Amino acid sequence: MTEPVSNDSISSNVAIDYPDFSKLSEDVREKFESLPTKVNFFRMVGHSAGAFIPIIDLTNAIFRDLTISDYNKELMVLLVAANEDAAYEWEQHVSIAQAAGVRPDQFIAIAEDRLEDTEAFTEKERVLLRFGRAILVKGKASGVLFKHAMRHYSVEELSDATIVLGYYRMLSGYIQTFNIPIDAQQDGNWVKG
């Protein structure tokens, strides 16, 4: 006779507590405490203490040090969020993308997978969105698409776009697997904590 199985063990809901940063190494604790905003993803990734500092550093590099414009970067982030059905990423980036210049009609076009919408996007933007979509769907942009994209973007910008796509796709899988709740926002800003 088999042991009874609790409903919790067969539920698809996952609820993982955030790690206790006071029990982590000093360098991880200091890095966490230095964050101006402690979003829920950063809290949860403390479970991977060995990767915590490099992930924070990569996040900072993506936000500060890339050659791709913030506007184009946010188009890529929204594309990942829509492709992965990642509410956390979408919601986290609404105010960021708006500040970077993404318009409401563009949010809607991306959400509805209308990447060829000529009223929402310029030819240059449509090429970048096709480039991003190919990487998300096929794992790479074809040579022809890559060369077409290079007529509008530098190699550095396309490299940055690829890094943004990969990073946010990784985040999406992590966030959705660990069922991380969307951070509280007030007037388009994260509630610090």
Describe the model.
The chain is built from ten helices and two strands; from the N terminus they run ααααααααααββ. By secondary structure, the chain is an all-alpha fold. It has two domains: 25-65, no CATH class; 68-182, AhpD-like (Up-down Bundle), CATH 1.20.1290. Helix 2 packs parallel to helix 4, helix 5 (70-84) crosses helix 8 (123-138) and helix 5 (70-84) runs parallel beside helix 10.
Number of helices: 10
What's the number of domains?
Answer: 2
From the spread of the alpha carbons, the general shape counts as globular
User: Which sheet architecture does the biggest sheet show?
Assistant: 2 strands, antiparallel
CATH topology category name of the largest domain: AhpD-like
Mean pLDDT: 92
Which class of the largest domain in CATH terms?
A: Mainly Alpha
Report the uncertain regions. Answer: none
| Computed structural class | mainly alpha
Name of the CATH architecture of the largest domain: Up-down Bundle
User: What is the helical fraction, as a range of percent?
Assistant: 55-70%
Q: What are the defining features of this structure?
A:
193 residues, mainly alpha, AhpD-like, 2 domains, two-stranded antiparallel sheet
Write the topology of this structure.
Layout lengths: L6 H4 L15 H9 L5 H5 L4 H16 L5 H15 L2 H14 L3 H8 L11 H16 L4 H8 L4 H23 L7 E2 L2 E2 L3
Antiparallel strand pairs: 1-2
Helix pairs in contact: 2-4, 5-6, 5-8, 5-10, 8-9, 8-10
Quick overview:
This protein is mainly alpha-helical and 193 residues long.
